[in-house]
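Ticket #4471: structure output looks truncated?

Reporter: J.K.
Steps to reproduce: submitted the chain below (134 residues) through the standard prediction queue, then opened the result file.
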Amino acid sequence: MEQHVVRVAAAIILDEQDRVLTVRKRGTSVFMQPGGKPDPGETAMDTIRRELAEELSLELAPDELSYLGRFVADAANEPDHQVEAEAFWVHVRAPEVAIAAEIEELRWIEPADLGHLPIAPLSIDHLLPLAWPT
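Returned output as attached by the reporter:
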């Protein structure tokens, strides 16, 4: 069976205790990095800045983000899909955020949360190891 690819931009955001911000979208049970799908003609940088503003009321300048690369994993909420994420590091520590749009819940997580919180494969396999190198 052919796998479909969902393209997104995602952000790694840390607070002063090196906890990572994750979000859970309405109607889902899995936490993931904030971000989302590009609008037509948007660059990955445009997408992540727009999504963070829409979902978390977080307005960032381009120099407050660094590109980390492109990562592929199984999609958390879409069976038979893979997610291809352009990931960014946010340089603002513990920014003021407020959930909006389709975000139901946000959590600042730490490594101890990994065993009992449902977290997206992209976060587990690629993004959280960048935030918490061993």
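Triage note (M.O.): checked the attachment and the full token line is present. The chain has a mean pLDDT of 93.
Status: closed, working as intended.
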